[in-house]
Amino acid sequence: MNLIPNGDREESPAVLVKRLELPFKNLLLITRALTHRSYINEHPEALEDNERLEFLGDAVLDFVAGAWLYNLFPEKAEGELTRMRSALVCTEQLAEFARALDLGPAMRLGHGEDQAGGRQRDVLLCATFEALVGALYLQNDISFIQHFLHPMMEAVSEQFLFRDDLQDPKSRLQEWSQGKKLGIPQYVTLQASGPDHERKFEVEVHIGGKVYGHGVGRNKQTAARMAAQATLEIIENSEP
């Protein structure tokens, strides 16, 4: 796999496949994985964006990261494994994986999104990486996905997996709520506003039928983490 960056120039799906030595027989699938909805809005001939593949890739990433951590750390408890997995598949880390593969130049974006710096935005890089994993899964099997992802996970594992200050607030909140027999926190999106390149999401946390913290972010994941952090602060201030 050749990870040499291509600078700021645009890159076709065919060139990306050749550069990364990806096993795609059908270029339509990889093209879809690289297509943001802003591109569809400006190119009606394009059939589908990458949001369904993003959904699939997100699930595959959760499984592969969880299985890798489960086997690598047999002594770790469920809560700690959950925190470590969250760190591996968070938006910022998946965006870094996308940068390592230099996916930015191959992303198919609308003109406005491109001009607004979409190729460097964490949320779009993360979504494209998830869609790529989803597309790879459809073309291959889970063992190939593990072979594809494990080296990237290993390269960053020692960097942050054991640092307490990088524990995901959503995981910490889930540990608290389950410890109090309140079930799993539910994250409810209140609204999404703004243009594609400046989206703002508002999310609140429901635990045991009660509304807790509120968060705002440029994507649902960030807004949910902010809401979880706000909830943790509410809990810390209210508990003796």
What would your notes on this structure say?
This protein is mainly α. It has 2 domains: 13-162, Ribonuclease iii, N-terminal Endonuclease Domain, Chain A (Orthogonal Bundle), CATH 1.10.1520.10; 169-238, 2-Layer Sandwich (Double Stranded RNA Binding Domain), CATH 3.30.160.20. The protein is 57% helix and 10% strand. The protein contains 11 helices and 3 strands, in the order ααααααααααβββα. The chain has a 3-stranded antiparallel β-sheet with strand order 1-2-3, covered by helices on one side. A hairpin with a 6-residue loop joins β1 and β2. α2 (27-33) packs antiparallel against α8 (122-139). The longest helix has 22 residues, at 51-72. The chain is globular, with a radius of gyration of 19 Å. The termini are far apart. Mean pLDDT is 87; it is low at 2-7.
Short structural summary:
This protein is mainly α.
Count of alpha and pi helical runs: 11
CATH topology of the largest domain: Ribonuclease iii, N-terminal Endonuclease Domain, Chain A
Question: Which sequence of SSEs, written as H and E, runs from N to C?
Answer: HHHHHHHHHHEEEH
By CATH's scheme, which homologous superfamily of the largest domain applies? Ribonuclease III domain
The span between the termini is 54 Å
- Share of residues in strands: 5-15%
Describe the secondary structure blueprint for this structure.
Blueprint: H1 13-20, H2 27-33, H3 37-42, H4 51-72, H5 78-89, H6 91-101, H7 111-115, H8 122-139, H9 142-160, H10 169-179, E1 186-193, E2 200-207, E3 210-217, H11 220-238
Antiparallel strand pairs: 1-2, 2-3
